[in-house]
Amino acid sequence: MAVLLPVADAQQRLIALAPSVDVETVPLAQAHGRWAATEIVALRTQPDADLSAMDGYAIRFDDMPGPWQVTGESAAGHGFDQAVGAGQAVRIFTGAPLPAGSDTVMVQEEARRDGAVLHLAGEGPRHHGRNVRRRGLDFAEGDMLIAAGARLTPQRLALAGVAGHATLPVRRRVRVAYAATGDELVEPGTPLAPGQLPETNRLMLAAQLAGLPVELIDLGILPDRAEILEAAFRSVDADLLVTTGGASVGDHDLVRPALEAAGATIDFWRIALRPGKPMMAGRLGKAVLLGLPGNPVSAFVTTQLFVRPLVAHLSGAARPFPEPRIVTAGEALSANDHRTDYLRGTLVDGRAFASTIQDSSMLRTLARADCLILRDPHAPAVERGAPVAILDIA
Ligand SMILES: Nc1nc2c(c(=O)[nH]1)N[C@H]1C(S)=C(S)[C@@H](COP(=O)(O)OP(=O)(O)OC[C@H]3O[C@@H](n4cnc5c(N)ncnc54)[C@H](O)[C@@H]3O)O[C@H]1N2
Ligand code: MOO
Domains along the chain? Predict the structure, then answer.
């Protein structure tokens, strides 16, 4: 038997096949879900002045416990341009700049107002600077805020915006062409002749890539005909070509020879992985190609482990691979063989249970699963209650 490539080696070889795609600059809202192409540095200081954190009165702490004479008002966007002198206070609101001379904010719940005179009506601020957000509390101009290769989450977009950016440099969308192969396959809902089967890998793949910065090019269902496959592969204009089916060693498994006839070079084929062993990877012109196995569960798992990370890598992600987390085995698991196993499992109160039948054709089992339980090559048996690594898929 040919030596199977370990999963981690396959992942590293895959991302070595191509660098990230070109950089473009897009408005903040369009950068969501993409990865920062460069470090994002603050263009301004936030806050750019000492601001009140509460609604109340700006005072000089040394004037405690009052009383004070209220001389004006400072609101967000409308500061007060006179200094606060001894015994004076300024009505102030959350987010408003502290008037010159003041250093502390007394919350209004602890104050009593009698016309222009203000009295302490509680404990009052406990220390100098209480309820004041100092200039630069969040960040200072020039600070590095978002690392290159970090995902642009909603919160990072907001940070970039408050830091003065209206646009961000990101990688352009990755063009992913994809096809299913197999004579037995027809679109879901089509009346089935004997031997036919609804094709479900394309819609599952497209849904697994939703949320990633991709442009999808659907090449449809291709028959098990060498010349048709070759012609379809020759005309691919994409960053990534994903096929499913025909990846194994049967007489009708024509994907590899058709890819090669179309000019592809295969970098690796067959991984020490279950499900997903017959996956192949290489290059076809300027595209990276990934030939996934046809079994739906194998196609799903290899998309999680390879296709999505490759898209993330091409999009500039610094950490493109899914990171397992540790939970408790809800039941004993037997020792593993030489292939990394991704068992379809369910999580109940933080405990993982593997489905009884782990057949890579079974979509009902996959659909019930909310995690993949990771079993390393030659991992020893695991007792109930022992730690196990999982990947979330829900
Ligand atoms: N002698 C060997 N046979 C097989 C091996 C092996 O090493 N030696 N590997 C097995 C493994 S593991 C897998 S996984 C499968 C993968 O084979 P293929 O990639 O060639 O897949 P197909 O034969 O085309 O299809 C397998 C199965 O899945 C159904 N299928 C295919 N595409 C779709 C689709 N788009 N939607 C729904 N269902 C699909 C297809 O009808 C088959 O039932 O090979 C083993 N064999
Ligand atoms: O490795 Mo295959 O993907 O088990 O069915």
Answer: 7-21+172-314 (3.40.980.10), 25-45+141-171 (3.90.105.10), 51-133 (2.170.190.11), 325-392 (2.40.340.10)
